[in-house]
Design a protein that fits this description.
By secondary structure, the protein is an alpha+beta fold. The protein has one domain. It is built from four helices and four strands. The strands form two sheets. It has a two-stranded antiparallel ribbon. The longest helix has 11 residues. It is globular, with a radius of gyration of 13 Å. It starts with a strand and ends with a helix.
């Protein structure tokens, strides 16, 4: 299980080391529930709702991490956000 604060995703956005913080909680929740290609169980839908309304860290059960990773991969988020979240979801950070 990993914890992610989707309301404060801080990533490097420039070669000069500039970082920017993004609040993508609502985007991720909506993508999981309405825009992604994943159709999962009620637990996944409840997690989408929890992420949407979150203002801090959300626990991501190991069961759902690969599904959220797929939603993130298929999203239109900038590459820096995708790389950062995929590292966390794949247990590499």
């Amino acid at each position: 299980m990993v914890k992610i604060d989707f309301s404060k995703v801080k990533v490097q956005v420039s070669f000069d080391g500039t970082h920017q913080e993004f609040n993508i909680a609502k985007n991720v929740g909506n993508d999981m529930m309405f825009n992604g290609s994943i159709i999962a169980d009620i637990g996944f839908e409840e997690l989408a709702k929890k992420i949407y309304f979150s203002e801090g860290e959300v626990e991501i059960p190991d069961l759902y991490a690969p599904y959220i990773a797929k939603v993130i991969s298929e999203s239109n988020y900038i590459a820096a956000i995708k790389r950062h979240l995929l590292k966390i979801l794949n247990g590499k950070q």
